[in-house]
Amino acid sequence: MSVNLGKGEGISLRKSDGSALSVVRMGLGWQAAARKGFLAKLMAREIDLDASAVLFAADHQLVDTVYFNNLTSKDGSVRHTGDNLTGGAVKGGDDESILVDLQRVPARVQQIVFTVNSFTGQTFEAVQDAFCRLVDESNGQELARYTLTGGGPYTAQIMAKVQRTATGWQMTAIGAPATGRTFKDLLPAITPHL
C-alpha cells in the first residue's frame, strides 16, 4: 500500500515483513499544463525536466551525482535509466527513473537527494501533475508518493531524500522550490535540507 507524503513527512524503507528493501526506484513524472489561447498553444515548447540524484557524506560533502549526462554513480549503486526530453509519456507513469541499490551504496554516503529541474528553463507554472514516487523494484509495489501541488515561478524542485538512520534507510519528502537548470545550480538550495 502506497503512502501519500506531505512536505517533511517520511517513511522507513522496510518491507511489510520488517526486512530491509534492497533496490528502490525513484520515479519522477510530469505533464505539460494546458495552454490557453491560440498563440500560447502555437508557441508552446516541450518541457524537459531532468531528474538527478545527489549523494552526500555525513559531513554534507558532495560524494557523487547521477543525472542525464552521468547515468551511473562511480560505485554503480545508483543508476539513471535515461533522459526523457518531453515528459508526459503516460499520465501517472514515470518519465524518468533513478534506481538505488541500497545494499551497495557505500557506507560513506549518508544521504541521497533527488531533484528535478527544467533544463529548457520553463517554470513549474508550465507543469502539472508533477510527482516523485518510491517503488520497491523487487515487486513493482509503490511505497510512497509525493505530489507537487500548484505551479510556481521556479525552475527546479528539491523533491525528496533517502538517508541512513540507526534502523536503516528512510525517505523524506522535501518539496522545496528552487531555481536552476542543472543539479549544480541547486547545491546551495539543497544544503539546508541535509
Quick overview of this protein structure:
This protein has 194 residues and is mainly β. The chain is built from two helices and twelve strands.
Describe the structure.
There is one protein chain. With 194 residues, the chain is mainly beta. The chain has helices at residues 38-42, 183-190; strands at 3-4, 10-12, 23-32, 49-57, 62-66, 78-80, 96-101, 109-118, 127-136, 141-147, 156-165, 168-178. The chain has a six-stranded mixed sheet, with no helix packed on it. The chain has a six-stranded antiparallel sheet with strand order 2-12-11-8-4-5. Mean pLDDT is 84; it is low at 39-44.
Topology of helices and strands:
Blueprint: E1 3-4, E2 10-12, E3 23-32, H1 38-42, E4 49-57, E5 62-66, E6 78-80, E7 96-101, E8 109-118, E9 127-136, E10 141-147, E11 156-165, E12 168-178, H2 183-190
Parallel strand pairs: 1-10
Antiparallel strand pairs: 2-12, 3-7, 3-9, 4-5, 4-8, 6-7, 8-11, 9-10, 11-12
Question: What labels describe this entry?
Answer:
six-stranded antiparallel β-sheet; 2 helices; about 5% helix; Lipoxygenase-1; six-stranded mixed β-sheet; about 190 residues; mainly beta
